[in-house]
Structure formats: structure tokens, C-alpha cells
Amino acid sequence: KFSYANRVGFGSANPTGKIPLGLKRKGLRIVVTGGAGFVGSHLVDRLIARGDSVIVVDNFFTGRKENVMHHFGNPKFELIRHDVVEPLLLEVDQIYHLACPASPTNVVGTLNMLGLAKRVGARFLLTSTSEVYGDPLQHPQKETYWGNVNPIGVRSCYDEGKRTAETLTMDYHRGAGVEVRIARIFNTYGPRMCIDDGRVVSNFVAQALRKEPLTVYGDGKQTRSFQYVSDLVEGLMRLMEGEHVGPFNLGNPGEFTMLELAEVVQETIDPNAKIEFRPNTEDDPHKRKPDISRAKELLGWEPKVSLRKGLPLMVSDFRQRIFGDHKEGGN
Ligand code: NAD
Ligand code: UDP
Ligand code: UDP
Hints:
The protein is of the alpha/beta class. 34% of the residues lie in helices and 16% in strands. The strands form four sheets. A seven-stranded parallel beta sheet has the order 3-2-1-4-5-6-11, sandwiched between helices. Helix 3 (105-120) links the parallel strand 4 (94-97) and strand 5 (123-129). Helix 3 packs parallel to helix 4 (156-176). The chain starts with a helix and ends in an 8-residue tail after the last helix. Residues 33-34, 36-40, 57-63, 83-85, 98-101, 105, 109, 127, 129, 185, 187-188, 194 line the site of nicotinamide-adenine-dinucleotide. One uridine-5'-diphosphate (UDP) binds next to helix 3. Belongs to the NAD(P)-dependent epimerase/dehydratase family. UDP-glucuronic acid decarboxylase subfamily. It comes from Corchorus capsularis (Jute). Pathway: Nucleotide-sugar biosynthesis; UDP-alpha-D-xylose biosynthesis; UDP-alpha-D-xylose from UDP-alpha-D-glucuronate: step 1/1.
């Protein structure tokens, strides 16, 4: 049976299995479920660069082979097409569990990955979400806030699925002694983001590039806090390597209304881009902003990339994917 502590060669001197960042140590075997997706593929880049062996488990529901293709041929990289709803047998040290469509499979997949972590003694990290706070009555949101979620609304299967995933994670921790970590991720953007899954940043950027109007839902006064993907990946890795279970909010406290976001997109891509108002979706949270004091204090983490710095990095990737390499003078 594998145990995390034995594997990294610290033995009983380091019962928590904690690997101080920057310390030389044996490469780990790491599973990233959802590793062909937006966040997962950036995480995989960092883990491979660090010298670890990475197994990506993905069913390509929303992810793309293109996101990880640059690792093909590297003996330390492996890609498995697999739905995490089905059991999976592997021998690994760490599991970053990102695989999640907005549906109940999120719960079954999490159960399987926790079962895997329990069997092989791997450390398990759940990527939960700020949506567990629902339409929050506390602002900004602290990890101690229990949230305001409608159990039967149109957004519920994602919100409640992640809440259940957090519950399962803590039950496996308390009941089976699995080493777990929980991240509550706030809205994240960056290169490789799905172009047409309807998220606001990807919608606005693609619309501005295609010379279409930016679709603002509702009055556009609702707020979100947008985090650049490299900041998130740094936070996930610090959380995995650190000694705290969490949950930890990982997000950028910079708060924008959707109209302000539209302005930043206009400044970055096309000052003449038009704005078009559309009806908002049901149960849309009015505001959202992370309180990140806990992550600052216990993980020594805070975001470094502002929206105005990060957005252009995403725009050049979108330009290439939308127009191809040789058109429109993509930067
Ligand atoms: P994404 O859709 O790009 O990545 C998810 C990946 O999981 C995809 O590659 C998809 O193919 C894969 N997947 C889905 N269902 C699967 C299944 N049953 N079996 C195997 N693979 C499966 O999304 P992302 O933005 O990279 O999100 C990654 C994680 O972070 C998710 O758990 C998401 O809930 C969480 N999160 C993301 C954000 C954000 O703003 N991007 C915010 C909060 C939480
Ligand atoms: N599981 C898995 N891989 C493993 C070990 C378990 O996919 O290496 C799955 C297993 O099929 C089960 C789930 O994880 O559906 C929970 O496993 P656990 O051992 O905790 O529960 P049990 O099987 O005892 O109900
Ligand atoms: N939104 C918008 N225009 C779009 C897509 C989304 O105004 O084209 C709004 C949406 O109503 C919500 C906010 O942007 O208030 C963030 O939506 P997203 O789906 O990106 O993230 P989430 O609601 O999950 O935080």
C-alpha cells in the first residue's frame, strides 16, 4: 500500500507529508482529473515543469486534447480517456480532482476519486466553487459563511453538487483518514478557456473579437471578481503541498460590475464594441467577492495579476483560436 509520506521520502520525520515549496524531493505521481480542461491543463504544465509524473484523466466533455498535446511523447505524461463516474484503479500520490460538468456526475466522480485516494493513501484536492455561497447575504464571502443556495433552482445541480462534494470530502477525511484539501474557486479566466460555454469573460472577449455586441445580462450591475488562471494554479499547488485542509477561497478580490467588465473589454479589444442588454438568468447571484485573508495567512498566497494585465493574455489566445494563426494580425 502506498502512503504519501513514504513516497516523498520524508518518512515519519514528516508525518503530514508536507513538501515545503522549493525543496528538492522525489518526483510525485499525480492524477489531474479534468486535466484537459482550462484550469487543469495549466496546472498540468506547472506539475510537469516541476518534474512530477502526471496522469490526466478526462472524458473530453468540455476539455480538449489540444490543451495538453504539447506533452505527448513525454514519458512523464499520460492521458487517459475516462469518465470519473466509472471506478478507476491507479497508484498515485496526489489527486487534483477538477473533472466536473454542471451535473450530478460531479458527486459520483468525487466519490470514486475519494475511494481511490483512500485505497492508495493519496492526498486529495477538491476544486469546489464560490457558488457554494449561492446568492450570498454576506459580502465579501468568508469561508465560515454557510451560503444561500436555492436547492431546486436552475443553478442548483452545480451548487448543490459541489456542496455535496465538499461534504463527501470531509466525511472521507474524518471517517477514513484521507488527507484532503478543499479550494473554493472564484471566477477564473485566461488562455484555453472554453470559447462558447457561456461564461461572461469568454463571451465578451469572443464577441468583441467577432465584432458582435457584448451581451450584458440584466442591468449589468451584478458583480464578480475575476482571477487570472496562473494565480489560481499557484494557489492550488500551495494548498496541495501545505498542511491545511481548508476550505480556502481562491480568487481575486478585485470586484467588477458586468458593465465595468464590458468597459475593460472595450478598452482592451475594441473601443467601438456595442453593448446589448439581455434578460438575466434565474437566481443569478447579485454580488460575489472573496475574502482571502485565510489563504494569505495560511498559504502565503494572493493573486498577482490584475484584470487589466490578464485580459490581454487571454485575448491573444482567443484571437488565434477564433481566426487561426495567420489572420487579423493576432498578437
Ligand atoms: P473545464 O470544463 O475547462 O474543465 C473540466 C474538465 O473536466 C474538462 O476537461 C472535462 O472534459 C472534464 N470532465 C468533465 N466531466 C468529466 C467526467 N465525468 N470524467 C472525466 N472528465 C470529465 O472547466 P475549468 O474551468 O477548468 O474548471 C475546473 C474545475 O474548477 C471544475 O471542477 C470547476 O467546477 C472548478 N471551478 C472553476 C471555476 C472557473 O471560473 N473556471 C470557478 C469555480 C470552480
Ligand atoms: N474506487 C475507485 N478506485 C479505487 C478505489 C475505489 O474508483 O481505487 C471507487 C469505488 O468503486 C467506489 C468508490 O470509489 O464506488 C468509493 O470507494 P470506497 O472504498 O470508499 O467505498 P466502498 O466501495 O467501500 O463503498
Ligand atoms: N453574464 C453576462 N453576459 C454574458 C454571460 C454572463 O452579463 O454573456 C453575467 C451573468 O448573468 C452573471 C455574470 O455575468 O451575472 C457571471 O456569469 P458567469 O456565467 O461567467 O459566472 P457565474 O455566474 O457562474 O459566476
